[in-house]
Amino acid sequence: MLAWTIYLSFAGALLQALLPKGQNTLARWLALSVALAGLALGIAGFVVGMGQGRVVLIDLPWVPAMGIHYLLAADGISRVLVLLTGLAAVAGVLFSWNIELRTNEFFAFYLALIGGVYGVFLSFDLFLLFVFYEIAIVPKYFIIAIWGSTRREYAAMKLALYSFIGSAMVLIGLLAAYATAGSHSTGLVELAHAGLPVSFQLWCFPLVFTGFAILAGMWPFHTWAPTGHVAAPTAASMLLAGVVMKLGAYGCLRVGIALFPHGLDPWGFSFAGIGSWRDVFALLAVIGIVYGALVALVQTDFKFVIGYSSVSHMGFVLLGLMTLNQIGVTGAVLQMFSHGILAGLLFAIVGRIVYERTHTRQLGELETMHLSRRMPFAAVAFVIAGLASMGMPLFSGFWAEMQVLVGTWKVNPWWTIAAGVGIVVGVAYTWRAVQKAFFSDALPSAHVLEQEHGRHFAAITWPEVTGVVMLTGVSLAVGVYPKILLDAIEPAVKALLAGGGQ
Amino acid sequence: MNYADLFRVTLPETTLELAALLVVVIDLGFLRKAALRVRVTIAALLGVVGCGVALWALRVSGGGGFSFDGAIVLAQSGYIAIAQSGILVLTALTLLLLIDEDFTRHIGEFVAVVLMAAAGGLLVASAQDLLVIFVGLELLSLSLYIMTAFAKSSGKSAEAALKYYLFGGMSAAFLLFGFSYFYGLSGSTNLAEIQSAIAASGSSPLFFVAWILVVAGLGFKVAAVPFHLWAPDTYEGAPAPAAAFIASVSKVASFALLITFSWFLLLPGGPIEGSKQSVEEYIRISFQMGSKLAGILLVVAAASMIVGNLAALAQLSVRRLLAYSAIAHAGYMLLGIAAIPTITMIEPTGGIFALTHMVYRNSEAVLYYVLTYGLTTIGAFGVVSVVERATGSDRLDSFLGLHKRNPLLAAVLLVLFLSLAGIPPLVGFWAKFNLFAAVLGVSAGPVPFALVALAIAMSAVSLYYYLQVLKRAYVMPAIDNSPIKAHPVTMAVLLFIAAAVVVLGLYPSLLQNWIQSFYPVS
After folding, report:
1. Is B9 in contact with B61 (CB distance < 8 Å)?
2. d(CA B154, CA A352)
3. Residue B314: CB partners within 8 Å, gap ≥ 6?
């Protein structure tokens, strides 16, 4: 059943491409129905899959001579992330309701991207996973380059090249693992059980992990993320931060950690406290958390604040993965979900609701606009989203980050302390953004006041309200009752850490 | 010597030559007064029919080969039949794209030359003897020079042809010089006998000299660095169908020849019989020699990947861009050919030592690559030629706003270029994956691995320049919004190629199984 999320999305993309020009309303509704159908399938798959382990959806020989299978399966982690993709897809369509330029092409690329993302989360054959992973690169380029804003061509090319270089590293690792394991199969489970030599894992793991982590926004390979997020149209920012960065993190977990568990073994010597790849990547993750937060603190562009906060929050995911213990990795997966929802929400408010009305994202200019009074809905939504994002209890982010920190404490308390600093700075930059954008008492200049008399902001539209309510509601639901997701994630993480993802 | 055998084996070549003559006779004899459009259509269709009949002849005559004095001169089995079928199909596609062209009034002659070049290609692919190889190469090359020069009214065409001819003449001289060394060292022009002579005499430095000269000659044919200088100019100046032919059919023939050479010179011959010791000694010497000879190819391959991809970044003309990308692709394929000899796995089965499977795996992958690459390139040149006729130039900027001016053409361009960049699920990705997996599968070790890593890194670079073209077509605003019209046949061929690129990418087994069916079961 879950496999249909992929086919539906690609079929939708094809339909959109064939749609005659000018049928913008039809294109929107078509996109929304495809996204809703995907979400419905995701929810149904999640509910049906409750309490089940890995379920094979379809297994066909694809290239029998090389042992490549068209193998789609789902375990708890996949189901949670498919659900996230469904939510992000629906929200993304809602927040791109106002796209007038080449509407059907926009949604064609959009749905193709979604289809690729679903595919990655459901593939249990490394080759297939890689195919879907690369399919997702090209639509990103066109979406940003055609419908983007600030320096869009530069940002789009940067994003495409970073992604492609990352996937090239993954491809090298994939080929090496395939050849080393005897060129029999590219199945994830088979490769994990192939007994790859430890010395091989020690160099292949960092290659593959870094390749995926580039897309997860790991410092210092994160620079595509802020520029990409800022340049992208709102829906694409939401997808980029919401699910595409998760592709990277998911690859780190599903491929990097599951296939090369010994890649994390100690080297046998240590340099300045760094004695294994695990230490290296955990350190980079912690640097990412703190660095992203500090940079977000000084941004003047509202969207850049959210862009850098994504880097910071994704650091928690990578840090959680590097704990290698049950609670930390579970937290990492939950953080993927939580950040996917919240980043989408924040980008929607900043990029769509606010920017479409004020036509500026400069905090300095927003300061003069008294947005809390003129746009109360946006202000309330942003305050809630900001609270959720900084880790307020009763929202999803709280449980995720807490689990990561608890997991980290068991491994190395210093990392926890450093990450805690990141959280504190996170509160600071969110507060600063809220205050500057919405609640500033700075007097508007005469010029702006003059303009203001004749100009009212357009009313909040129904797609905007629906999107905000949906995303906030999900985050709140998971925050109040995290067990609903944890029950799915925990057994899957346990199986994965025990080896092979069986 | 058996003339009946010779006739049977060369039936496809004969068919092509007859078709060439027929086209000239009909065009000059009966259609002098007809409109150019009619003449082009009839000539091209006759050529396509000729290719079809030759394809049928290939099946009829299949197997065996032609021997002279007990030494095989023309072979027809395995990879050779695949390459020959590929040559014929790609030639037919090139001819179909000709229908819309108007660069010459002497269309009958042009089609005749194309068919003769294809016959040369068939000969090159099947030849197992230095003399026949040379004859085939000259037939192919001379036809290509003529095709390049065919746009008589264009100065660029003449310039391109002259450059191509001068470089080609020199490289032919190198090749012949190398051949003369091989003959001098072994007393034979037959590749199988040269192979035994190498194994018997051990490694004489003169073999290296001969091999380097041969690599120079063949490196020119496949446009490998440092013998690539002709390629950008020729691709830019030649009429589009000629350029497409050079980039596809000539590549397939040349790589088939390279596989032949690698088969005989870099490897100990097929399954070997004898006592364990003598076989091991024989293999040891051959491998020693082979891996050194292959080292030269690896250097050329690495240089081609790097230079081709980096130089393509700076191009403003799409044809030159395609030329440099062709150089890069030649580098990947050479890697596939050169990685053969580092196999050390030998399994004795009843006194016969077989090391064939791994070798097959490699040549299969190279063939897969060159066939699909040829197909994609013909399509790419088809698109370029349509755009060129509408805008008068092949600059990057003439592709501006293509998605508005002709959405279908832009979609074809998107598919073909993404395939060339190696984006799944298109066939170019599968070809690369298959090739690199084959290289790593047959030859583990740091050097092949490093080169595969280099190749993958370089294909990441290549995405940039392919996107430069697609960016013009899809992203940047158009200067001119007038629609671009393509001839229905041209459009149909381009759509067919794009569909093939997608379908073969989604079902890689289709083509792979077909290729494997030509190889003995191992």
Report:
1. yes
2. 54
3. none
Segment B240-289, tens digit of pLDDT: 999 999 999 999 999 999 988 888 877 665 556 666 677 677 777 767 77
> Residue A309: which of A294, A287, A331, A324 has the closest Cα?
A294
Q: Which of B411, B456, B512 sits opposite A172 (nearest CB)?
A: B456
> The whole model's pTM is what?
0.91
ipTM: 0.88
CA neighbor of B449 nearest in space, from B307, B308, B335 = B335
Identify the residue whose tokens are 């169908």. Answer: B241
Which residue from A62, A134, A156 is facing B423, i.e. has the nearest CB? A134
Q: Is A60 left (phi over 0), alpha (psi -120 to 50) or beta?
A: beta
In chain A, the number of structural domains is: 1
What's the CA dihedral at B73, B79, B81, B86 to 10 degrees? -130
**Are the C-beta atoms of residues B47 and B115 closer than 8 Å to each other?**
yes
C-alpha to C-alpha distance for B475 and A141, rounded to whole angstroms = 10
Residue ranges making up the domain that contains A62: 3-498
- A164/B contact by beta carbon, under 8 A: yes
Across A318-322, A413-417, B201-205, B433-437, least confident range: B201-205
Average pLDDT over residues B23-45: 89
B290 and B265 in contact (C-beta within 8 Å)? yes
Residues of B in Cβ contact (< 8 Å) with A64: 509
CB B154, CB B237: distance < 8 Å: yes
Whether residue A315 contacts residue A400, with contact meaning beta carbons closer than 8 Å, is answered with no
- Per-residue pLDDT band for B345 (boundaries 50, 70, 90) equals very low
E strand intervals along B364-514: none
Q: Please state the three-class secondary structure of A415-436 as a single string.
A: HHHHHHHHHHHHHHHHHHHHHH
Q: Test B423 with A171 for CB contact under 8 angstroms.
A: no
Of the residues B362, B463, B518, the best mutation for testing chain A's interface (the one with the most A CB atoms within 10 Å of its CB) is B463
Strand A68-74 vs strand A55-63: parallel, antiparallel, or unpaired?
Answer: antiparallel
The confidence score (pLDDT) of residue B203 equals 65
**Residue B109 neighbours by CB under 8 Å, 6+ apart:** B24, B27
Instruction: Determine the pLDDT at residue A501.
Output: 43
| pLDDT at site B273 | 64
A224 has a chain B CB within 8 A of its CB: no
If DSSP codes are grouped into helix, strand and coil, which group holds residue B371? helix
Averaged pLDDT, groups of 10, chain A, 502 residues long: 89 88 85 92 88 84 87 90 92 86 88 93 92 89 86 87 90 89 82 84 91 90 86 85 90 90 84 83 92 90 89 92 90 92 90 82 78 82 89 88 91 89 90 85 58 66 88 91 88 81 42
Average pLDDT, chain B: 87
Using alpha carbons, list the distances in angstroms from residue B313 to A138, B207, B226, B363, B462.
19, 38, 18, 30, 8
DSSP reduced 3-state for A252: helix
Other Cβ atoms closer than 10 A to A456: 9
